Q: What sequence folds into this?
């Protein structure tokens, strides 16, 4: 298909060991011709001068990739005006988070799926009264991967206008710790905890523990990621054959409504300085992106692995899983115009997962809020301070949640956060952002 025989090698799964192996590999001048790098790995190596400028080779042998990868993605792959990578963006802007609710419990109590924060609070209180032996809502289980806070539930946070770690406020990036509504969010969650409306084990729950409480019928609600849907609903059906689920993906509050979505680069595909085959590497990647090849490599053979009607792709099971389950990991860039529809076939291979995904993404345009920092490079102040600050914030917010710290100490804590590196992060993020929007404009769907 491509005319090249290719050998693939994997880095260790452990992130620290993977970085160590990558550094040794690059420093030793190994014979690898292509490196598939996470963004932080790419920015580190390109600053070290360890990667080849690909502009000449893309101009000569990259006609297809130049057409199917969007201009903004190419712009992000540049360093000092030169292209050192083929960007591989995320599959499509998606809503990933929701709150799953046992609809049968709602129906028996005469309750409707809440759409506002006030309705949500009322439903929690009604559930506690109707089912005193149940946990109205368990959580967090899967700690939100944007805020990295035990106390943060994306669907609830949206009602307070907190969608992302950083928010564009009149052209300036504001961290959620600087937003007055985050204090209100934290106070609200502490009320839920005090009233027994959320799991008393919230601070120590694990994902497995939350799932067990939900699928065993001990909890009525569970903050959900669509990747959790398959295992959870299968277990629920096993325990309660007639079970029905409903999903909340947005709650309207006085400060906002909606949840986070993102556009970003997942990987940068690069050629190390030591490779003598840069032109062949680009030609190989370009061939993979040609129309028929990309469809085959991604989904398989039409009529065997999938069916197609217009822009809709349906997997043929079980052969799709058997022969194309891991195909994503071999991609060297995607057709950014076609792949969003093609990728849905991967979700459709499991009806429970797709039902959850489709339900929470049905009104994406109305309730989705784009993470404007999705294309940010490694920011020095963020890299140096983020981990310690996240731990500091997580500890403080958990103490407020359980009542061992007063919400009245919030403003003083924010000052400590600022002096501990928060201000440095804000300043450097905004320096990048102002330059980014000057060059590219604001990111949109």
A:
């Amino acid at each position: 298909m491509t005319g090249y025989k290719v050998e693939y090698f994997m880095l260790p799964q452990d992130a620290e060991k993977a970085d160590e192996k990558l550094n040794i590999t690059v420093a030793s001048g190994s014979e690898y011709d292509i490196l598939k790098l996470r963004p932080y790995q790419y920015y580190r190596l390109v600053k070290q001068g360890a990667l080849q400028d690909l502009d000449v080779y893309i101009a000569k042998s990259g006609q297809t990739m130049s057409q199917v990868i969007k201009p903004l993605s190419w712009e992000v792959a540049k360093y000092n005006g030169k292209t050192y990578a083929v960007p591989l963006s995320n599959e499509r802007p998606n809503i990933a988070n929701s709150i799953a609710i046992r609809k049968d419990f709602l129906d028996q109590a005469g309750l409707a799926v809440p759409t506002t924060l006030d309705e949500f609070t009322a439903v929690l209180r009604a559930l506690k009264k109707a089912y005193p032996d149940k946990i109205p809502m368990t959580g967090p289980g899967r700690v939100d991967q944007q805020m990295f806070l035990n106390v943060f539930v994306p669907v609830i946070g949206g009602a307070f206008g907190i969608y992302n770690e950083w928010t564009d406020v009149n052209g300036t990036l504001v961290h959620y710790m600087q937003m007055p509504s985050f204090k209100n969010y934290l106070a609200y969650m502490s009320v839920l905890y005090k009233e027994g409306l959320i799991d008393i084990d919230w601070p120590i729950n694990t994902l497995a523990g939350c799932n067990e409480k939900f699928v065993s019928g001990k909890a009525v609600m569970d903050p959900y990621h669509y990747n959790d849907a398959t295992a959870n609903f299968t277990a629920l059906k096993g325990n309660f054959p007639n079970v029905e689920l409903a999903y909340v993906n947005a709650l309207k509050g006085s400060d906002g409504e909606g949840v986070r979505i993102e556009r970003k680069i997942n990987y940068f595909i690069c050629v190390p300085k030591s490779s003598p085959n840069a032109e062949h590497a680009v030609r190989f990647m370009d061939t993979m992106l040609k129309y028929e090849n990309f469809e085959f490599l991604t989904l398989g053979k039409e009529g065997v692995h999938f069916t197609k009607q217009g822009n809709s792709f349906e997997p043929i099971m079980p052969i799709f899983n058997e022969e194309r389950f891991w195909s994503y990991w071999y991609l060297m860039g995607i057709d950014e115009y076609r792949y969003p529809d093609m990728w849905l076939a991967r979700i459709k291979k499991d009806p429970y997962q797709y039902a959850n995904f489709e339900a929470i993404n049905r009104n994406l345009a109305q309730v989705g809020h784009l993470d404007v920092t999705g294309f940010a490079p490694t920011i020095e102040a963020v890299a140096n301070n983020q981990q310690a600050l996240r731990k500091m914030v997580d500890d403080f917010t958990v103490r407020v949640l359980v009542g061992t710290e007063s919400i009245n100490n919030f403003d003083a804590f924010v000052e400590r956060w600022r002096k501990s590196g928060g201000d440095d992060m804000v300043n450097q993020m905004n320096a990048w952002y102002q330059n980014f929007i000057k060059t590219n404009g604001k990111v949109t769907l």
Remarks:
- The two ends are 33 Å apart (CA to CA).
- The first strand starts at residue 35 and ends at 37.
- The domain at 97-261+370-440 is CATH 3.40.190.10 (D-Maltodextrin-Binding Protein; domain 2).
- The mean pLDDT is 95.
